[in-house]
Amino acid sequence: MTPSVLGTEPFDFAIVPEHDFPKPSPNLLVTLGAPNMIREELLKEEGSLLLSRFSCVSEKRWGLLIGGDDANYTIPPSWVEEVLVSLLEEAKDHGADIFMTTSRRTRAETEKRIEKITKGFPNVRMLVLGTRDTWNPVPGMLGLCQRVFCTEDSVSMISEAATAGHTVSVIAVERRNGFKGVLQDITERLAGGGIIPKRFLWGTPRFDEMIHGFYKRGLAVIVSSDPNNVASSVIRKDGRQGDSFNEARRAAEWIIKRWSS
């Protein structure tokens, strides 16, 4: 995040996310998403551990990373019936085992609904509820699964999945409305019309720009939130695509190069 008062000029090295729309500068590196610690060795190690803990029937394995509520997004229990069930049905039709986790931000009532619904899907091999379990299964899921689905509210999980080499299937969730939402929409229209710079975007429009950056680079696809269209929007491409996208590594290499020059 860009320092709001100081800016980046006082620093020798400034690593700033693309969706902050920073002005180009020699001391500035612009990143997509959130740099993270995902690396190939960790994926293999945690993937093997996950496989030893949870039995698989199918060679097809899908990972579902579900976020939760924050200032911009909300995942109510109704979302489980409206969106998640359709995705679970799609996995069953494809003969895929499901590995699923929620986050510490997930509502307790939403987790209860997920827990109840998944009992009707024997292909759900793992369900880790983030508000009850401190264990982090995400690296193992990213290493073990051929497809990864992530709700749009979690920049960190989308970034980690992309760093692991997945083309991330991003699932829409509900957005908070009210007066703040109206102001965000107005700002987005003004920026879209070129009346104000995009750096004035805030809330969900700013995160939309970030996710669009993943789309443009082929690192993500959208999964429809319409239950009738989930099947047609699910990505058909299995497997990880390598580690060419790694913003933490790129940032480290940039600092070393500038430090030694």
Automatic annotation (TrEMBL):
A Pfam entry, by short name: Mito_fiss_Elm1
Descriptive protein name: Uncharacterized protein
Lineage, opening ranks: Bacteria, Pseudomonadati, Thermodesulfobacteriota, Syntrophorhabdia, Syntrophorhabdales
